[in-house]
UniProtKB/TrEMBL annotation:
Protein source organism: Streptomyces incarnatus
Pfam family, one: MPAB_Lcp_cat
Designated name of the protein: ER-bound oxygenase mpaB/mpaB'/Rubber oxygenase catalytic domain-containing protein
Positions of the ER-bound oxygenase mpaB/mpaB'/Rubber oxygenase catalytic domain: 14-245
Amino acid sequence: MGDPGLFTPHSVTWQMHGDPMMWVAGVRALYLQALHPRAVRGVLQNSDFRRDAWGRLMRTVNFVGTTTYGTTEAAERAGARVRKIHRTLTATDPQTGERYGVDEPGLLLWVHCAEIDSYLHVLRRSGFPLTDAQADRYIAEHRVSARLVGLEPETVPASRAELAAYFETVRPQLAAGPEAREVDDFLLRPPTHPLLIPAREVLWRRVAQLAYAALPPYAHELYGRPAPAPTVVTRRLRATGALLRGIPARLRWQLPPKHILRAMARLGPGARPAPYKVG
């Protein structure tokens, strides 16, 4: 048997991150992360995401895939790269002139918690079967990914209750400033080739709207854009989840960067992620 990596096929993370609704969850995370002015400022002032939207998205997907399904060495190497990049980046508050590092623990913690909350919320709400205890286990497992980006694991929420308490604490710092509006506009209308604009309007916009609708109510209030009733959103999430999960996994996993297929080749067919293995 090869190296099972940091999470191993026995983890909740291993099973969850193979689910196709992770794409919708990732967009929700971007919407949520953009509501922290200092965090989103660090992204916009150090990124050409409008010109390299696909590249940035794939780098994020590759990082999550590597840390979940890659070898221990590959995951640690990916984390070291991220920490090295973050150490060199700064952002400036346009109102006060304050210059700060994007690797401030508070900012890293916000990005981490917004991601984990989004992954867990969207997958559970769309029909991925998880008990409350398994959801807590998933959150606790991601103290590992928090360490990779530079956080002290003991400072990171390790249960649903701790995660909820964290969001209550940080909510007064959140706002939908001009940077968040720019992210919102970008997610609804990402730059694309003129021939692909119809597909963007039909497919991508629906994904972005569903991800936005899955945000917590306070996020809708901050953005100032309403969302359908929670029961409607849940119904749409479950319908989308059923549709995407109906696509054969082997076909879905052929899309780059193919981390799951490589993990199965390394560890054997028993490493195949599946919801029923969570227990």
